[in-house]
Design brief:
Helices cover 5% and strands 54% of the residues. It is mainly beta. Strand 9 and strand 10 form a beta hairpin.
Length: 176
Amino acid sequence: MAWELDSAHSYIEFSAKHMMVTTVKGRFDSFHGVFDLDEEHPERSNIDVTIDVVSLNTGAAQRDGHLRSADFFDAENYPTARFVSKRVEKLGDEHFRVVGDLTIRGVTHEVPLDVTFDGFFTDMQGKRRAAFEATTAFNRKDFGLNWNVALEAGGVLVSDTIKVQIELQAVEQAAA
């Protein structure tokens, strides 16, 4: 069955260590996606999500501009990032690993998402919805996000590891 991501009730958040100590978080304010959710056989399901990179928001305009620049996302040349699932592995009743291709800056690598299915529900308009939580982490340099500054006391300004936290709601689409 076809499902559409409800971006008004979802978020995609990322975080990195700053100066080796503190965590800086950001989110993408614009993204869309579709699911083919097989309730009987979840391993047959798939997802395709596109993220508008220019919508990133860390709460600091100067930092956001730098992250959109060629030093990081190069949003002018690569305005979107995309995740397309390749396989779904059932790990428990409501726990899954969704492995897919993540493309950032035109570079694609396989990334696993640790997914928890939170359940189905019917909204106030009578539409059926599904809710999920997902996490992952990856090395930003794998995608060409190489910019950094060495710190005088040792270490670097921005960690290589990027953590991602996702909360998704999807709305079941009417059969064609």
